[in-house]
Every structure is written in structure tokens, then in C-alpha cells.
Amino acid sequence: MDFSRIQSVIDIPVLQSKTVTIFGAGGSAGLIQDLTRSGIRSWKLVDPDRVGVENMSRQDHDPGDVGRFKVDAVRDKILGLNPGADVRTIRQDCTSMTDAEARDEFPNTDLFIAATDNHQCQAFVNRLSLIHTVSAVFIGLYPQALGGEVVWTDPARLDCCYRCLCPSRYQAHELAKVTGQSLDPTSMGADICGIRILDAIAVQIVIGLLTQGSENRMGRLIPQLDDRQFIQVTLSPDFQINGRDIVRERLGVAPGNPGYFSCNSVALADPDQGQLPCEDCRNFRQHQFFQVDGKWRRFTSPESRSTHPINSESQD
Ligand SMILES: [Zn+2]
């Protein structure tokens, strides 16, 4: 591929050396192609579903793909763009894998993407990110595509994993599961416009995470965000959560401001202000935390690690 038009803003050699594993090859079919055009050439695609006729209205699949596994259809699109790409496909639901299996199945991934609104899959990707100590990006569309979010983790640098960021969400899903319900939003009313806007943000975050520190616009993106790892986006003027436009409120825009419409975003550090570390962090990166006076702290240097040994008796 010829990257001459984008090599001033993206560190192409670095991006070409990375492997991305993505869960979901439906609504993310366009995102995968955008990242391929940007330089990613090593992929692992995971999705148990086949392309259906109903997917044509909101996913980057073609009528000729109907009946095929989505991962196979997307693999062909990647190879059509870059015949030198390395694409591996998994046509099954991996979310019931044990942690040991997850460790063995995805050994050389540099970044995971959860491109599905399925909470069980998002929770699995969070554990994968912690097990392998690599970043993960979570793309979520809210019901009716009135809004959405792009969340990411970087276990080597940031305190919060996905579960630390969204503890009330985990609790709600666990409660619903007990009563046999699902809180996962359906795709009804979720149009391709919302998917495209969220994907555009997610593509930048993925490139930013993988080329962090490079002397160009994408390389500066993550340092510019620092510890703000939760981007919330309005996709319609009708956007509300529990009766409130929390994006407008968080931006400090007064109600009725004529300049405020839609496609606004807010970047947050820890919206739920959860207590660290969460259960996943305790299980998979216990060595990164210690307690002082009943409060959890994170080891920030080898010195603090040696002076504050883990008190494993007080973790619950
Ligand atoms: Zn956590």
C-alpha cells in the first residue's frame, strides 16, 4: 500500500508491526477497513455470526456476502485492500473461555477491540487486556443510537480497567443475569450514521494507542488525553440518559444554548469514580497495587513497590 498521503500524521512502520484482535465483525466491518487503510496489516477477527440480509442497511457487508461468516467476509475485504495482510479468523464465541485458555489463544496481540454491545464480551475483553497487559478499546452504541461511547484501557500506564470505570454497569448486568434478563441494547434503530461517528473516534484512539509517543498528530493523541479514557458522544439532539443530557451538563453548556446541537463529545477520567482496584484488577494485576490506611494505591515506581509490600489479607 502507498501511505505517502498519511505518513506525516501516522507512524506507518510502527503500526505495520502491530497485531490487533477484534471481537465483532458486523458493525465494525468499516472500522476494520479504516484501520487497514491506516496501516494495520496483522489481524485476528473473532465473530460467530454469519452475514444476514438485514445487515446491509447498517454494516459494511455486501449482498454477495449473505450466508458467509462475517469474519470471512471481512478478511476478504482486508486482503482486497492489502494483499500482504496477515488475517486469522475465529468463527466462534470465545467469551466462555477460561482465563488459561484466553492466555493461550491470544498470545501476540498488541491491542484488543470489543466492537460489540454484548456485556459478556466486553467483560471478557477486559480480562484479556489485563491478562496480556495490553490496551483494549471498547466501542458501545447506546439504545436507538442516540449516543455512544469509546472507552480504552492501558494496564501498563493507567489505573482504571474497563471494570474499574464502569462498576455500576457490571452490577446492573450481574443483577439482570440473576433474573434471566439481558440489558444489552438491541440494534433496533441503531443506524449506520451513529456507527460511523463512533468508529471514526475509535480509529483515532486505536492508532493513538499503538503509535503513542511518535512525533506526529496521532502519536500525540493519547498523551494529550492523559488519564481521560472514557469518551461519551451525543449522536442526536434527543440524547438523554435517565432524563438528562449528561454530555451537555459535563461540558457546562447552559440549557437552551442555541449553539448546542448534536455530535458533541466529552472526555472523562473516571465517570463512576469507582474504587480501585476492581475484582478483575485484584485477580490479574494484584502486583500493581498496595494498601495504605485501608485505601488502595497503585505502585508507580520500583521504589514504592519495595517499600509497600502487598497486604494480601486485606483485599476483600
Ligand atoms: Zn479494574
Q: Name the assembly state.
A: single chain
Please tell me what the overall shape is: globular
Estimate what percentage of residues fall within beta strands.
Answer: 15-25%
CATH superfamily of the largest domain: NAD(P)-binding Rossmann-like Domain
Which architecture of the largest domain does the CATH hierarchy give at level 2?
Answer: 3-Layer(aba) Sandwich
The mean pLDDT is 90
**Could you say how many structural domains there are in total?**
2
Terminal CA distance reads 52 Å
Class by alpha and beta content: alpha/beta
Please give a quick description of this structure:
By secondary structure, the chain is α/β, with parallel strands linked by helices.
Could you give the topology of this structure?
Layout: H1 12-16, E1 19-23, H2 29-38, E2 42-46, H3 70-81, E3 86-90, H4 99-105, E4 111-114, H5 119-132, E5 135-141, E6 147-153, H6 162-165, H7 167-178, H8 192-210, H9 217-225, E7 230-234, H10 246-251, E8 265-268, H11 279-284, E9 289-292, E10 295-298, H12 302-307
Parallel strand pairs: 1-2, 1-4, 2-3, 4-5
Antiparallel strand pairs: 5-6, 6-7, 7-8, 9-10
Helix pairs in contact: 2-3, 2-8, 8-9
The structure holds zinc ion.
